[in-house]
Specification:
The chain is mainly α. It contains two helices and no strands. The two termini are 21 Å apart.
Length: 85
């Protein structure tokens, strides 16, 4: 994922993206749109399965902006991978 540990994205990057997409499917606002647990297991265990696009998340917050002149903020995250010695 850009830190060089997986060759610039590669297999691990695709796996992380897949897990994130499944997670977003599980927190969709409309409970009827969320996958059943057996479907989640199938989605995570079959890398060839095509995943649907997630809808609106139930945990999505929209903050009103203070206007076009308001300063924008940047978010950053870090991912730590624990490796045995």
């Amino acid at each position: 994922m850009g830190d060089g540990t997986d060759g610039g994205g590669g297999r691990h990057g695709a796996s992380i993206k897949r897990c994130m997409q499944v997670a977003l499917l599980c927190v969709q606002e409309d409970a009827e749109d969320r996958p059943a647990m057996d479907d989640v297991v199938k989605m995570l265990s079959n890398e060839q399965a095509i995943l649907p696009e997630p809808g609106q998340s139930a945990y999505f917050n929209i903050r009103p902006s203070a206007g076009a002149d308001a300063p924008s903020s940047a978010c950053s995250i870090s991912i730590s991978m624990i490796t045995p010695r």
